[in-house]
Amino acid sequence: MHDTIHSAASTTTPMTARSDWPEQVAVWLPLTLFFPVAWMYTGVVLFYVSLLIAGNWQQKWQRLRQHPMLIPILGLSVVTALVAALHGKPDGAQQEFWPAFGHYQTYLFLLPFLTLQAGAWQNRALSVFFGGATLAAFLFVLSSLHLLPDVTLFRSYVVYLGNKSILLGMLLAVASGWLLCGLVAREKNSAAQWLQFLFITAVMLLLSKTRTALVIWVMMLLLMMLSRLRWNWRSLAIAALPLLAAIGLWQYALSQPRPPSCVVNAVQAAPWEKVRLRGVCTLQQVRDFSEGRRTGDDDGMRTELYRVTSGLIAEAPWSGHGIGSWMPLYRERAQGLSSATMTTPHSDYLLYLTETGVLGLLALLLIYAQQARLAWQFSRSSAEDQRRLAMPLAMLSLSMVCGAAFNAILRDGVFAMAFLILLAVLLAGARRRV
C-alpha cells in the first residue's frame, strides 16, 4: 500500500457552481484566524453548511475513505475511547470528563475538510493567509504606536489574551517560514515579496507576545536548511553556523545576571530588549530545571508543572490515569505551589501521557508522523502543485510538534481549529491506493 497525490486535473467531471461552494468558503477561512475566535468558528460552520448543500456524497465519501489521514485520526479516537472505558470517570473529574474526552477528538473536525479535492483554490487560500498575516503585522505595529482602539475586533493585538495572543505569534511565524520557502524556491522575486517577508518576520520577532513563535520559526529555518543540504564540505560548514550560533547564545544567556522579572509582557522595554529578555529567561530556566532548582518568578511555573506532572506520569505510564484526571490530580499534588490553580500542563505530550499513557501519546505521534510522511511524498510527486506544498506541510507539521511541547494546542480550540484549517488547505487531494 502506498500513498499518491492527485491534482485537480485528475477529476473527471466539472464541478457545478453549488458543488464548488466548500472550496470557495475554505479559501477565506485562513483570514478568520487573525481575528476574534468567533469569526473562525463561524467560518467553519459556514464550511460545514456549504458541504451539506454541495451534495455529491458518494464522491466525498470515496475521497475521505482513500485519504491517508483517515486511519491515524480514527486510531487516536479509538485509543482514547478505550482509555475512557478502562478508567471510567476519574475521581474529581466527573464534570470535566466529557469536555476532556471531546478534546481528544479534535482531529475529527479535519475529516470533512479531507473530502475536498486539490485545485487552484489552495493557492488562493495561501494568498489569503499571507494577506491576513500582513494585516495582522500592521495591526501589531499600530498597537505598539498606541493607535489601535481597544475594541473586541482588535483586542488580542492591544493586550495579552493568553492563547489567542500566542496563536497570532505562531501564525506570523508560519507565514514567515512559508513566504521564505517560496522566495527560495523561485528564481525571481519582486522587492514587494521580500518586503512582505521581512515585515512579517520583524513584527513576529519584536512585537508578538510569545516565545513559542520564535522557537517554531527557528526550527522551520533549520528544517529548510537541512532539506537543501548537500553532503560536501561547503554545505556542512554552512550548516554548522546555526549550531555555533546556538552555543554562543546559550553561553551568553547563562552569563547574564538573573533578570528582576521574566514576565516579559509586563515589562516596559523596547521590543528588541524584550526579545533578549525572553531568550535569557528561557535558557536560564532550562538550566535551573535541569539542575533541580526552582525558579522564583511566575513565568517559572512551567518548571513546577513539568516536575509534578512527571511524577504523575511515572505512576501510570502505559494507560494513564484516565480522561480528565490531570487537573484534580495535579491540584492535589501541587498544594502550596504557585502553579496549583493551573488547568493544563501547558504541553499536549504531558497531558496525553498523564491521562492516556504511552498508548495515547503514540496515537498522537502517529498522526504527526503521517503528516510528515505525506510531506515527504508531496516532495516526490510528479505534480508541481503538490511539490510546492511539500515544505509548507513539513513546516506546519513541525510547528504543531514544537507547539505541542509548550502549549496545549489540541486541548484548546483556539489553537486546534486554526492548525486544522491550515492543514486542510495543504492536505486536499492526498489519496491512498492499494
TrEMBL record:
What PANTHER family does the record tag this protein with?
Answer: LIPOPOLYSACCHARIDE BIOSYNTHESIS PROTEIN PA4999-RELATED, TEICHURONIC ACID BIOSYNTHESIS PROTEIN TUAE
Kindly name one Pfam family recorded for this protein.
Wzy_C
Q: Organism classification, top ranks?
A: Bacteria, Pseudomonadati, Pseudomonadota, Betaproteobacteria, Burkholderiales
Q: Which UniProt keywords apply?
A: Ligase, Membrane, Transmembrane, Transmembrane helix
- Which species is the source of this protein? Undibacterium rugosum
Q: How does it sit in the membrane?
A: Multi-pass membrane protein
> Which segments does the entry list as coiled coil?
none
A GO CC term assigned to this protein in UniProt: membrane
Record-annotated membrane-spanning stretches = 38-57, 69-88, 100-118, 125-145, 165-184, 236-253, 349-368, 414-430
Query: For this protein, what is any one GO molecular function term?
Result: ligase activity
Top-level taxon of the source organism: Bacteria
Q: Which residues form the O-antigen ligase-related domain?
A: 197-365
Location(s), subcellular: Membrane
**What's the protein name?**
O-antigen ligase family protein
